[in-house]
C-alpha cells in the first residue's frame, strides 16, 4: 500500500538516517522526529552470576583500550550529541572510525573470549522467525508455509493481502481466522529465547530487537524495556479508528478470536486490530528511538534466526560501530551485501565472514537452539541454560494443565482472571465493556 514517503536525501532522513523504508514490506517510518531523545549514557555494568554476585571478568589479552568508551553516570547532553554526530558521520561517510579488531579469532570460541572480557558489556540481539521455528511456529508471513491454503474460502486476491492494512480494514475476517490458528500463547519459548533471558540475567543484554510477533520473548521472561518488537506484537490491540484508538488487552482479543467474532471497538464499533505491523503501516516509534541510542554503545551484535531480508530491520546490522563484533547464528550465511552498494544505499556495512579483510563477523551455521547451546557451553552456562529451560517449560505445562488453557503466559491467560470480556478491556473513562 503506501510506501515510505521520506523525502530526505539517502542516508539523511532525520528519523532513521536512511530513506529506504518500505522498499520490501511497504513499511513506513514515523514522520515525526519529536525532539530527539539524545542517547542516555546510563548503562548496565558488571556481570552477575546466578546468585547475583558479580562474576570476575577476564580482560581480553591484547584488546585495545577504547579511549572513547562510555562513562558511567551519564554524559552531558552536548557530549552525547557529539558522540551521536561522530557516529552518524562515521557510519554515513566512513570517516573517523577505526576498524579495531576485537576478536582474537573469527570463531565461536573467539566470540566467547570476547564476551568474557571487560570490553563486552552490552549485547544487542537481533532475532527473527528462525528462533521460534523449534517452538512449532511457522514463518507465517511466507506464502510458502502452506498456511495460506487454509484461507482459500476467503478468496484473497493474493496471499499477502491478509497482512495489508487497506485490505484488512475492509475484510478483517481472513486475518482473524489465521490469528486463531496461530494464536500466540499456544507455544513454548525455545532454548534460544531462554539464552537471551540468560544474557539479561548476566547483565549483558542491552536490548533484544525482534521481528517476531509471537510474544515468546515476553513469555520467556524478557520485560517490555528489554524489547523492541519491530514488527509489533499481539500483546496489545487498538481500535483502527484514528479518532478513537481505544486499547484492548491480549485476553480481550483472545476471547474474540476464539469465539470467531470479528473484534469490534466497544466505543465506536470500528474493527480492533492487534498491534502488529501490517504492510503499509508505520513501524513502532520505539524502533527508531531505541535504535538511535542503543547502537552507539553496543559491544556485540548477536543475530539469530533471521535472513535479514526485511527492511528497515536488516539495516540494523550496519548501525553498530565499525569495531563491534557481530555473531550470526542461523541456518545459512546472510547479510552479506556488496560494500559499495551498501554504502550507496545507506545500508551500512554488510557482513563479511570470509574475505581477507574479515575482522569482526562470525557465522555459526545451524539450528538456533543448537547454536545457543554451543555458545552457552563455551561460556560455562550450559547447565544453567538447560535447567532454566526445564524449569520454565515445566511451569508452563503445569499452568496449562491447571487451567486447561493453551496459553502458557500467566499474565495473559484469560483463565486466570474473571471472564475477559467483563474485565479486560482498558477503558480510559471507566466505561464497562459489554
Ligand atoms: Zn474505537
- Overall mean pLDDT stands at 75
The coarse overall form would be globular
Helix content: 25-40%
Q: Biggest β-sheet, characterized?
A: 6 strands, parallel
Report, as a whole number of angstroms, the end-to-end distance: 34 Å
Q: In percent, how much strand structure appears in the residues?
A: 5-15%
Which strand order spans the largest sheet, edge to edge or round the barrel?
Answer: 3-2-1-7-8-9
**Which ligands are bound?**
zinc ion
**Structural class by helix and strand composition:** alpha/beta
Q: Which H/E pattern describes the elements?
A: HHEHHHEHEEEHEHEEHEHHH
Low-confidence stretches: 1-77, 406-434
The Cα radius of gyration reads 22 Å
Number of strands: 9
Number of helices: 12
Protein described:
Residues 418-434 have a biased composition (Basic and acidic residues). Zn(2+) binds at residues 239, 244, 265, 268. It is a single chain. It contains twelve helices and nine strands. It is an alpha/beta fold and 434 residues long. It has a six-stranded parallel sheet, sandwiched between helices. The protein is globular and about 60 Å long. The structure holds zinc ion (ZN). The site of zinc ion (ZN) has 8 residues, from loops.
Descriptive key words:
434 residues
